[in-house]
Specification:
This protein has seven helices and 30 strands. The chain has 431 residues and is of the alpha+beta class. It has three domains: 72-204, no CATH class; 206-247, no CATH class; 262-389, no CATH class. A hairpin with a 2-residue loop joins strand 6 (111-119) and strand 7. It starts with a strand and ends with a strand.
Length: 431
Amino acid sequence: MEPQHNYTPGSSGMQQQIYGRKKSKKGCFIIGLLILLIFGGAGAYLIYFIYSKANNKLEEITDKFKDLKDKDRFIGNRNEDKRFKGAFIDALIIPTTGTTSKVFILTDGSKTYIETKKRPGYYSTGAACIECKTTAYLFDPAGDKIISNTDFKFPDIITATDIVKKDDRIYQFTRSYGETPAGINIYDAVTGKLLSETGDFINTYPELSSGVTELSYRKEEKIVKFETTDGRKDITFSVDMLKIFKNDKDLRTAQENSVEGEAFIYAMANENNDSRRQLYRITAPKKYIVSQASTLMSYSDRPNMLKQYKAASERVSGKSYIEGIIYFQDENNVFIVSVDKAGKKANRIFTCIDAVTGSEKWSVEQKELFDFLKIDEEQNSRQSFSSSKDKISVTSSGNLVLLKIKGDGVMAFETETGKKLWSIQSAPVGF
């Protein structure tokens, strides 16, 4: 509005007030409305812009989580046998006179879940279970039937348990975890029934009379290391000898004194510092083979080191096995699991070597094996070579060889031909 001007009185004798151009109320309202619309529109656009960016970012994050979920998804198929409940742990061959061999199968039948505990100043998340147990099955492959199944309950989850056969007994060694104590169960290999538990084992060996606090099992050597409540460690139990030793040195001395003469073992060596492995045959005194086999195998391509053990080695053939690992060997056969190529995607190959001649008997390709054995790091980190190689194990007796994958299942083949006989993938336990 223009400024006010005052003038001297006119002839009428009254003061006059004269204003400049005057706006109506309607005009002010229109201007105010326009300003409001401009600022309102700008604000609305700004909100839309921010929302659009945030929404796109949210979708991007969501997609990443979807990709992450898909990345850990198992690639392949499982043919579950619902007669066997729980995660597969291990299987052993039970030779039977006058008939085909039976198989002792152990599964973890616990119902596991993730448990979170919260209270002021405390937060923890971990695995837990209800109906925590292992189940021992005695299986007759010829009749395709379960002869017996025996449950053994635990107070907490079972993180590590191993089985081994000695004579007509199956020994189960379980490590402690949470409320689950270290323990030893013994089963009858012929019937599959539980014969004794930890207390009975301790009563048999006075060295353990104070009680067992922890144990660890070495599968390759068939020995158990015990820790006791009176503070002792490295008490060593030999499954082969069924005897306890104070330490490894005493065990090694006893092993070396129990044999004489020469024998041979096979080993894989890496000549070029890459993923290719070559097969070597090592000839050495028996006492070193039974007491220090892993040391001899590590020196298979180092003749100067082998001389310390009066041993020598030779390369069996010109063939290389990519990421080849010997999982089992005896006086008749050597069993190797390798891959067909290096990289993040590969197929596994199961090979049998004649231990006498060093020549290949047969190989089984991936199409005959469980899909879980495939290497596919791009889709599932659990199907990488490094994370799956320690889940594989092999055992053989007579004309039967078992290829086992912990957590997945077991496959049986004829030792002489490589013919696949049967396979079992146990069914997960549901709530």
